[in-house]
Amino acid sequence: TSDKATRHLIEQRRLPQHGWSDLSIRRLLNDIALMDSNNFDGNVGAGEREGRVYSELVRQRNFGLAHGMGRSGDIAANQPKAAGSALMCRVTEGLVLDVLRSTGCTNTKSCVVLPVATGMALLTSLLYLKQCYPQSNIVIWPRIDQGTCVKAPQTAGCVLEVVEPVVDGDSLVTNLTRVEELLQLHGDNVLCVMTTTSCFAPRTPDKLVQVADLCKTYNRAHLVNNAYGIQCSRCMGLLNTASLQGRVDLYVQSLDKNFLVPVGGSVVAGFTKDIISKVSKTYPGRGSSAPVLDLFITLLSLGKEGYFDLIKQRKEVYAKLKQKLGDLAGRYKERVLDTPNNQISLAFTLTPSNYKEDCNLTELGSKLFTRNVTGARVVTCSGSKTVGHVTIDKWGCHSNDYVTPYITFAAAVGMTSDDVDKLVDKFGQVLGKLSIV
Q: Fewest beta carbons within 10 Å, which of 195, 198, 362, 395?
């Protein structure tokens, strides 16, 4: 039965319906490791990189897979002396492609798992686009206050054109008029428009379909930062529709935020096989296969049923968190900002007059941290931040025009109903100490 499941996995390269046992996964990894030359009986390595590992603990941690992934000219190339590692990488790419399609972006044709986090994957994508359009260096960027998004274009040698969002009720939405003005103004000097799906409220996913239509009309590339959007059907649906109706070249996502693995990997996906092959050749040198190994194990352990159970649970947790924060807000004369198009993040207002005179609103975040609540972000809508050569006012709130201080919480994949109860209870304790309402 195990051999049949393994053959099916290798031939189909699709996520198994049900998760595998740890014993079955370990057996497969041992078989894969035996295909790498460093694990051959009597192997004599005569090169400078032969998969030699001094520590037995390190060898065990990596299941004997020491050659990494790719070759010097292509991160997706197969190494002849590492047939097992190469097989694991190709199967993992197939599993991820199955997930991307199954979660809503059915038009995706290919993907590559990179051994770098999201920011470096965005950089790799930008460098690929620079090879395609060497005379173009302007990136039109609908503002989202996340440092990586500011750094990646500058590191690629690009000039960033920041597009301030439009305030629509409580939500911050894409300023399509300004995006088109910049496309017209800069013409062929525009390398791409870099949009965002998953984001902190009150920012909402960019209007991908409309931006994709503009990129198609003006024949400019479109790169999407889909950092933790795989877990959200709305984000994946937007990507799919945008790719069908307009132009989307590449979209990038994090492994740890979407698949519950350690930080260190990402996925670059596209809507032709050719474009991903070219992106893979842009990456210089080999890479660690550790992120691929972690993802391979996790996806086999989950299976399709397990992963979609997590996504279903996330939606339920989001609804519960929204309700409980709303109840808490009512007791302290605050409210949960109305951002219906953001289905992951929620923002809770922090009206300064509701708190003690000597209270710095950022204290709420630090007091939550000392109560073992991590990830909450207090935004005071003040100050500025310089990232590289770009200075952005009111850093953190995504807009120069937003005036309401708030704290954000994310109902991300892996959060449980019990986590929500504990979070709201501890947040209520902190509000009780600092509020004068």
A: 362
Q: Tokens 């709305």 sit at which residue?
A: 234
Facing residues of 141 across strands?
A: 162
Could you tell me the two tokens for 23? Answer: 């014993």
Chain centroid offset of residue 143 CA = 17
Q: With cut-offs at 50, 70 and 90, classify the pLDDT of residue 339.
A: very high
Burial of 235 (0-12, 13-18, 19+ CB in 10 A): buried
Residue-wise pLDDT for 253-290, tens only, equals 999 999 999 999 999 999 999 999 999 999 988 899 99
Q: Which residues, at least 6 apart from 319, have a Cβ–Cβ distance to it below 8 Å?
A: none
- For tokens 């199955």, the residue is 98
pLDDT tens digits, residue range 352-379? 999 998 889 999 999 999 999 999 999 9
Measured CA to CA, the distance from residue 289 to residue 20 in angstroms comes to 21
Tell me how far apart the 2 most distant CA atoms of the chain are, in Å: 76
Q: Compute the half-sphere exposure of residue 237: CA atoms within 13 Å on the CB side of its CA.
A: 5
Tell me whether the omega of the peptide bond preceding residue 80 falls within 30 degrees of 0, making it cis.
no
Core vs surface per residue 38-70: b (16+ CB within 10 A) or e: bbeeeeeeeeeeebeeeeeeebeebbbbbbbbb
Token readout for 244 is 């069908």
